[in-house]
Amino acid sequence: MFQHPLFIPVAVGVVIAGVIFLIVSYRREAKPAETPPQPSPVGWQVQCPKCNRWKQLQPVRRELLEEQEINILPGTQHRYIHEYKCPFCGHTWYERYTG
Questions:
Q1: Looking at residue 76, what is its pLDDT?
Q2: Which of 14, 16, 18, 49 shows a CA-CA span of 20 to 30 A to 40?
Q3: Model confidence over 46-97: pLDDT tens digits?
Q4: Quick count: other Cβ atoms within 10 Å of Cβ 83?
Q5: Smallest Cα–Cα separation from 49: which of 79, 90, 81, 98?
Q6: Above 90 in pLDDT, residue 16?
Q7: 22-43: string of b/e by CB count within 10 Å (b at 16+)?
Q8: Using 50, 70 and 90 to split pLDDT, how confident is the model at 31?
Q9: In a 10 Å sphere around its CB, with 0-12 CB exposed, 13-18 middle and 19+ buried, how is residue 55 labelled?
Q10: Strand 61-69 relative to strand 54-57, pairing
C-alpha cells in the first residue's frame, strides 16, 4: 500500500482538503451575526385620488382596526387604517393595510 506511486499525492490531497474545509468552516462560524434589516420609515409613495399627484406621505393618523390570530403560522395579523392628507390640494382619504 505504501509502495504505490499515488499513495503520497492522494494522502497529501486529502490532508489539504481537510485543512481547507476546517478553515472555511471556522471563518463561517467566526463571522459576526448579521444585523436584522432596519424597518423602513413610515411613508410610502402614495397617489392622491383627487389631484393624482404622487408624493411620499406620512400618515396623518394610523389606527389599529383589529388583531387576528393566524392558524397556519403562529402569530397575529394586524389590520391598520391610515389617514393621508395631500400637501398639494389638501384632500384627506383613508387606506387599509395588513401588516
A1: 83
A2: 49
A3: 788 898 888 777 778 888 888 888 777 778 888 888 888 888 888 888 888 8
A4: 13
A5: 90
A6: yes
A7: eeeeeeeeeeeeeeeeeeeeee
A8: low
A9: middle
A10: unpaired
Grid cell of 65 as nine digits: 382596526
Q: Largest Cα–Cα distance of the chain, in whole Å?
A: 91
Nine-digit cell string for 43: 411613508
> Other CB atoms closer than 10 Å to residue 57's CB: what's the count?
18
Q: Hey, what amino acid is at 71?
A: N
In the prediction, which pLDDT does 17 show? 92
Give the residue carrying C-alpha cell 400637501.
Answer: 87
